[in-house]
Prior knowledge:
Elements: H1 12-34, H2 73-78, E1 87-92, H3 98-116, E2 120-124, H4 130-138, E3 144-148, H5 151-154, H6 158-162, H7 164-175, H8 184-195, H9 201-204, E4 208-211, E5 216-218, H10 226-232, E6 237-239, E7 242-244, H11 253-264, H12 272-275, E8 276-278, E9 282-283, H13 287-292, H14 296-318, H15 327-341, E10 350-351, E11 354-356, E12 359-361, E13 366-369, H16 376-388, H17 390-393, H18 398-407, E14 415-417, E15 423-425, E16 428-430, H19 479-482, H20 486-498, E17 503-504, E18 507-508, E19 512-513, H21 514-528
Parallel strand pairs: 1-2, 1-4, 2-3, 6-14, 9-19
Antiparallel strand pairs: 4-13, 5-15, 6-13, 7-12, 8-11, 10-11, 15-16, 17-18
Helix pairs in contact: 8-18, 11-16, 14-15, 14-21
The protein binds guanosine-5'-diphosphate, 2-acetamido-2-deoxy-beta-D-glucopyranose (2 copies) and magnesium ion.
One 2-acetamido-2-deoxy-beta-D-glucopyranose is lined by residues 513, 515-516.
Amino acid sequence: MFQIPMSINVTNQNYRRKLSYLILIIVLVFVTITYPLKRFYNRTEDDENIIPYSDQNIDTEHQYPFYKGCKQVDAYVNDLEYHKMNATCVMLTRNEEIEDVIKTIESLESHFNQWYHYPYVFLNDEPFTNEFIERVKQHTNSDVQFGTINQLDWNFPEEVEKSFEYREALLEQGDRGVMYGYMESYHKMCRFYSGLFYRHPLVRSYEWYWRIEPDVDFFCDITYDPFYEMKRHGKRYGFTVVIQEIYATVPNLFRATRSYINQNKIKMGSLWKLFTDTYEYADTEEPYLKKTVFREADLYYKISQKVAIDHLVKVSQENGESNLNDEKNEEGLRHLINRAQSKVPIFERKFDNEDYNGCHFWSNFEIAKRDVFDNPVYDNYFKHLEKLGGFWKERWGDAPVHSLGLALTLDFEQVHYFRDIGYRHSSLQHCPNNAPTKPKIPYVSGESKYDRSHSTLYDKPSEFGSGCRCQCPEVEYDVEDYSFPCMDRWLELGFEVENNFNFKDGKYYPYMNLSSFENGIKNDFETRF
Ligand SMILES: Nc1nc2c(ncn2[C@@H]2O[C@H](COP(=O)(O)OP(=O)(O)O)[C@@H](O)[C@H]2O)c(=O)[nH]1
Ligand SMILES: *[C@@H]1O[C@H](CO)[C@@H](O)[C@H](O)[C@H]1NC(C)=O
Ligand SMILES: *[C@@H]1O[C@H](CO)[C@@H](O)[C@H](O)[C@H]1NC(C)=O
Ligand SMILES: [Mg+2]
């Protein structure tokens, strides 16, 4: 029988160093073979040279900016193929936010709409004041419409609002410090954007919309028509920021989503992979792996562990007392101890063998086709969520609801990352490098008040830049580089699509053939020392 040797002739430190080298090698090999991107956010001191995403070329076959750098607007618009789209800019807001509303309009007009003149729709749960309407009209030449949201739509059902549980739920979320949890109006806003905005008659009179908010900034010129390009490229939903939700706001959202999927036998689109981890990731009958492996990154470590332990067991069976100085045995032993000490992890969000990773597109910016939401699958999804009361029992945000809801029907390829659009909302921003500037496109204003043909303040161009005349404010970080794990996942998926995507009809296909994968690792192991 195998016996645990009482003294191992290496110090703990020595071992740790070896192990970290080993892991580093594994990670490096792994990263190089699977995709050429290096994670920036999660880098360690050893990875000082890793280049931030924002300075890399991250294009893949299906994901790339429609254009890099500026277009000549006149020529673009006069192209015979081009036609203006049935589209509008939509903002839900309150009268008292007028100054911030104007800031947004000026920014959007100056960087985009002075050339394209798409109309605006403003929505409010109260009537807009004349002052609000006049001020808005002073700041754009485009058509502007103002809509009031019916109180029956805006509020929760009367019996809910009258109930003790409703008040208590808001208070309790406040006490727990759930972000905006105590704010009744915020809950209503999230509910409205989750399930009602796309049914408002003013919004329904357009096919496409661009959602905007008060007090946001655009930093680059958008000299092409994003609606038209989306249509041309088969895209239906576009975003600028993908980020992780605060878990406390949505503890039961994923459970509710899974129950809707199960009841209605929904076959999700491949976008589902952006938001979920599956525990059926690897094709294996090995019980330990089945329980613990759900990401490619875990797979490599766990199988290496298994290979080393298998080796140890085999050697000890073959010659009773094993050679304690054999480094392979030593590694196996360490792994065995590690594995024995490690628990099968508990995942709070695991339902139906899946786990929501909390990622979502930030919905304060959306450019989309209205019917990505205005369709029976999504609409019934919203009704299902509404019935469960999560918009007040918890503080389900419209962003995670939109994202999971989109994934019920959309494939990854139908979503577009507007990498070239510089955008700030609250304290987060994404702002691209300017594209290389040849040929030089002169600035021609669409409206004289936006003339800046003599401006020289634009950021310097950069090799992999995509922006047009960006002026990015100096900030510590760009969300593109720091949105772990969501941007990483987004980019991984881009490469997975090229490498034969393993998702179809709402089901994962085992991505890894574990026997052949294991054989590869075994070979490495045997020849390594
Ligand atoms: N009419 C109206 N608009 C609201 C209300 N609450 C939020 N909004 C709007 O909904 C959007 C999101 O709200 P905001 O406070 O910016 O939330 P945040 O972006 O998540 O911090 C903004 O466009 C607000 O103007 C409300 O009670 N009434
Ligand atoms: C835009 O699309 C909406 C919804 O499909 C339709 O009702 C409307 O007539 C269209 N408007 C134009 C100008 O084509
Ligand atoms: C996986 O690989 C093994 C060994 O390389 C092979 O025998 C097996 O048929 C493969 N399984 C699948 C499902 O491809
Ligand atoms: Mg906001």
